[in-house]
Amino acid sequence: METPFLPQKGNYRNLIAYQKAECIYDITYYFAHHFLERNDRTIDQMVQAARSGKQNIAEGCAASTTSAETEIKLVNVARASLQELLIDYEDYLRVRDLAKWNVNDKNAIIARRVCAKHNDSSFYRNAIQIRTDETIANIAITLIHQEDVILRRYLDYIKEDFLKHGGIREQMTRARIEYRNKQ
């Protein structure tokens, strides 16, 4: 059986990692525009970090057809952007003397369960409308931690796939040899 050297990849919208990142972006957009002062530079920084997390997953997935290296780099950029965003949310809570939920806090446990179950950004856009800034920030923190785990697993998958199938040049060479051997 002929091995394709350009397997079609890149359907990022089906990735849980992308869906979660979209939820984080939507929450952050709402949060930054509702709870930060209009002239605060943090608005742009938070929204851009959330956007970078989402966009780099999409771009990495699209690049995956021809470059595992590019995919890995872009997924790592997404992780780094979301870590920057995490710090912004933690800073927001700390400087305002608001509670950052402890891992064993009742609210944190509930948030982890709910966030693990929902990957549809419309769910969060509706749910946050009636929540406080403290609650929304903690929900975002929960999602970012979950997303970090998902992205680490995704990176492991990319590495494993590369080890099994090789890079594009190896795949092209195998396909060309298979083709020549059939002639």
What does this structure look like?
It is a single chain. With 183 residues, the chain is mostly helical. The chain has one domain (12-117, 135-178): de novo design (two linked rop proteins). The chain is built from seven helices and no strands. The chain has helices spanning 16-35, 41-63, 68-95, 106-117, 121-127, 133-165, 168-182. InterPro entries: 23S_rRNA-intervening_sequence, 23S_rRNA_IVS_sf, 4helix_suffix_dom. It comes from Prevotella jejuni. This is Four helix bundle suffix domain-containing protein.
Write the layout of secondary structure elements.
Blueprint: H1 16-35, H2 41-63, H3 68-95, H4 106-117, H5 121-127, H6 133-165, H7 168-182
Helical proportion? Answer: over 70%
Give the overall shape, derived from the CA principal axes: elongated
Largest sheet: none
Mean pLDDT: 92
How many structurally independent domains?
A: 1
Highest-level CATH class = Mainly Alpha
CATH superfamily: 23S rRNA-intervening sequence
Structural class: mainly alpha
- Strand-residue proportion: under 5%
Number of helices: 7
- H/E order of the elements? HHHHHHH
Task: Give the second-level CATH assignment, the architecture.
Answer: Up-down Bundle
Strand tally is 0
Outline:
The protein is mainly alpha-helical and 183 residues long.
